[in-house]
Amino acid sequence: MGSEDVKVLCFWASPFSIRVEWALKLKGVDYEYIEQDVFNKSTLLLELNPIHKKVPVLVHASKPILESFVILEYIDETWKQHPLLPQDPYQRAHDRFWANFAENKLLYASFIAMVATGDDTEKALNVARDSVEKIEQEIKGKKFFGGDNIGYLDIALGWISYWIPVYEEVGSMQILDPLRFPAINAWMTNFLNHPVIKDRLPPRDDMVAYFHTRKKIVSPTYHDLMKYL
Amino acid sequence: MEDLKPHGFWYSPFTMRVVWTLKLKGLSYENIEEDRFNKSPQLLEYNPVHKKTPVLVHGGKPICESMIIVQYIDELWPQNSLVPHDSYERAQARFWVAYSEQMVPALPALIQSNSAEEKEKAVQKAWENFKVLEDHCLADKRKFFGGDKINIVDIAIGSFFVFFVTIEDLKQVKILVAEKFPLLHLWFDNFKNAPVIKENFPDREKMLATMKPFLERRLASS
């Protein structure tokens, strides 16, 4: 593969921008990593993503692509090696459904559980655990969601394996009980041990410190997030 | 003969997306009308995770989530393609479909608004999204979001605008104001008059009659 003009605007602790990096690395595509300070957004970010002003942004041959799931599909269609999405339309629909499900149900609920207090924490934890229960059924008997190899859904859900344990530590709570969810825990180990993924994870201590700070900042106004449950 | 059974509520924007797509592809199907307040056991079996419509059952296998269903149909029946051929343009279309999700809260907010103040607030919120579409998506005065032909963005957003114009009647409030959003207004005109969409556009009187009890029901329970 010749060198392509590929840049990715990322934030080191973002579960969204890391997906893009995982996909590019699995496909062996070289890219320029451009760190963004999401609390002090650069002119570049605001220019490339004026509507949402968020990472990740993939810039390919000077053209910006936004929204992590849209970027994943673009990457898969542009670089054909190590295919991520299944060929079969029914399986593709299945993967897209579960990617959305984890995003809308588990991601918000687990973050909210970390920053909320009292009954609201319990409420968020219940939503989170119910979501994990459903995902557990999808991974039972499989090494990866993609089968023998990492696929789209592994990348879309990969954040679970690394971000949720950090949320658990920061929030002094448990979501991914290994006794209740053995299949998902086994998948997490497989995922995190994959040579490409292992090589591209943000430092855990930094993550814990960062999310402790986030919790302090977000907790006073966490009620605004409850509507996402 | 394909074994296609969409389950939905005819008046729901999400179901409309599926029906329009099937019609645009010239596919025959058996419509399964669900009762929102009394969902069939089959529906609950086909969509155990969300228990929602629409669900497309194809050869006995369920596909859930309206825009996932639309893309599924488009991938299996590529005639009259609903996504751009170019991968960058396709990514743009998918971005706008994802963006349309931001408009979803406007639907219940408008339905549930009663006082002048609540209506004003709900309309203002919807207008934030309209402005983005007007300024970013239609700036080149294209006929449809898909250019010369309808694409997944037209389907996603068109379904919400059917709802918005119904609410205008129900709530006596102007939402798609031509002076404020000339390009969007023109686009919706083009969309409603497009072949296939025009023949499958929900009847205005029927929409009003069906949606009215929802308002009353909402008021009764508040």
UniProtKB/TrEMBL annotation, chain A:
**Top enzyme class:** transferase
Q: Where in this chain does the record put each GST N-terminal domain?
A: 4-83
- For this chain's UniProt record, which GO biological process terms are given? glutathione metabolic process
What does the entry list under GO cellular component? cytoplasm
**E.C. number, please?**
2.5.1.18
Domain called GST C-terminal: residue spans: 88-211
Q: Which UniProt keywords apply?
A: Transferase
Per the record, the domain of life is Eukaryota
Q: Name one Pfam family in it.
A: GST_C
- An example molecular function term from Gene Ontology annotations: glutathione transferase activity
What's the catalysed reaction?
RX + glutathione = an S-substituted glutathione + a halide anion + H(+)
Stretch forming the signal peptide: none
Which family is this protein grouped under? Belongs to the GST superfamily.
Identify this protein by name.
Answer: glutathione transferase
User: Which organism was this protein described from?
Assistant: Arachis duranensis
Q: Which gene encodes it?
A: LOC107482214
Automatic annotation (TrEMBL), chain B:
- UniProtKB keywords: Transferase
EC number of the protein = 2.5.1.18
Domain GST C-terminal span(s) in chain numbering: 86-214
The catalysed reaction is: RX + glutathione = an S-substituted glutathione + a halide anion + H(+)
Q: Which CDD domains does the record match to this protein?
A: GST_C_Tau, GST_N_Tau
Report domain GST N-terminal positions.
2-81
Please report the name of this protein according to its UniProt entry: glutathione transferase
Gene responsible for this protein? LOC107466573
